[in-house]
Structures are given as C-alpha cells and as structure tokens.
C-alpha cells in the first residue's frame, strides 16, 4: 500500500535576478516548475519507487513536495524514510531556460 511522505527539494533559492551558479534554480524558476507526477527514485537509481503527488513553495521560495512510495514493494526505502536514514530529497533537472525537472530522489545527506 502506498505511504505518503513530504520534504523540501530545494531550500532558500536565490531571487530571480540574484547571483547564482549555472546549476542553481531561482525562486522564480522553482515556482514555475511543475513537479507533480514526476517519478521518485532511490538515490538517482534507475528504479522508480513512487511519484510526486503534491507541490508547494513557501515564503522564502523553497520548493516542497508530498510523494507516495509503495512501501510493500520497496520495504527498505520505507524503513529508510520512516527512520530518517533517507532524510534528503534531491531534484534532478536539465539546465536550460526554463529548467526542466527530471525526477526527485530520496537519499542520505552527504557530508
């Protein structure tokens, strides 16, 4: 049975005309990027483990999502999400104007 989880895919982006690197996304780009329906993967692997069901931006321009994962088909991922071992979301996108979202991955925070 699918379980729902939520998290932030991009925190505190620069303003539309603010300084940013080539792979950075501005708050304007994130607001205009549609993530609902995108696949969710484990650590950018080839296997799709779920999909984005909802998205929103907060006052700082950070982009948040709710996603579903079938924890019966992917029990290790379910445990990782529930125990916060998989505690980060990573938005993969193609650089361009506008940038094109590809997928969101659940992963561990790299140090």
Describe the structure.
This protein is mainly beta. It has a single domain (2-107), classed as Serine Protease, Human Cytomegalovirus Protease, Chain A. The chain has two helices and six strands; from the N terminus they run E-H-E-E-E-H-E-E. The chain has a six-stranded mixed sheet. Strand 5 (88-94) and strand 6 (100-107) form a beta hairpin.
Share in β-strands: 35-45%
Highest CATH level, the class: Alpha Beta
Give the CATH topology: Serine Protease, Human Cytomegalovirus Protease, Chain A
Give the number of DSSP strands: 6
Number of helices: 2
- CA-atom Rg in angstroms: 14 Å
Name the overall outline: elongated
Structural class: mainly beta
Distance between the termini: 33 Å
Number of domains in the coordinates?
Answer: 1
- Across the major sheet, the strand order is 1-4-3-2-6-5
Notable traits:
single chain, 111 residues, mainly beta, Serine Protease, Human Cytomegalovirus Protease, Chain A, 6-stranded mixed β-sheet, 2 helices, 6 strands
